[in-house]
Amino acid sequence: MRLEHLNLVVNDLDESLFFYQAAFPHWRVRGGGESTWHGTPRKWLHFGDDYHYLSLNDSGTGKARDLKGNTIGLAHFAYVVDNVDALVKRLANIGFEVAIVGAVNEAYKSRYFIDPNGFEVEFIEYLTDIPSERNQYV
User: Fold this and answer.
1) Cα(84)–Cα(104) distance, rounded to whole angstroms?
2) Is the pTM of this model over 0.85?
3) CA 86/CA 81 separation, integer angstroms
4) Is residue 27 within 8 Å of 87, Cβ to Cβ?
5) Cα–Cα distances in angstroms (integers) from residue 1 to residues 4, 123, 125, in the given order
6) Distance (Å, rounded) from C-alpha 15 to C-alpha 99?
7) Which pLDDT band holds residue 64 (cuts at 50, 70, 90)?
8) Which residue has the higher pLDDT, 62 or 52?
């Protein structure tokens, strides 16, 4: 089993794409178009590779949930990357700073960013391929 895609409602497709292209330079826009969602016109695109993608839809209104609160909703989503330091540098080069320095230990290191729409995204680099070392809960 694997996750195929996340469907995110955003404020601005171009701004969102700018962030995610820096995070995932090997991904591409797979397709897109226009539709109507519950009476609201929207543009959408799929950004990813042949196996996994983000579906971005530009009909967003309002604000994302307060990440420092306990409101029901998405807290964050995470991607495994090969080199978290290189990703941090790419995002810093386009004006995005690390929001939270996550774990740094012998098994993995992670960094959290807030995307242009207020979604918290974790990027994690595993430093071992041994599951019992990756999955420590202490």
Assistant:
1) 11
2) yes
3) 10
4) no
5) 9, 21, 21
6) 18
7) confident
8) 52
SS (H, E, C) the chain: CCCCEEEEECCCHHHHHHHHHHHCCCCEEEEEEEEEECCEEEEEEEEECCCCEEEEECCCCCCCCCCCCCCCCCCCEEEECCCHHHHHHHHHHCCCCCCEEEEECCCEEEEEEECCCCCEEEEEEECCCCHHHHCCCC
Residues in the chain: 138
If you average pLDDT over residues 62-70, what whole number do you get?
Answer: 89
Structure tokens at 47: 């950004």
**Residues linked to residue 90 through DSSP beta bridges, in sequence order:** none
User: Bridge partners of 44?
Assistant: 33, 57
How far is the C-alpha of 81 from the C-alpha of 108, rounded, in Å? 11
- Are 78 and 70 in contact by the 8 Å Cβ rule? The answer is no
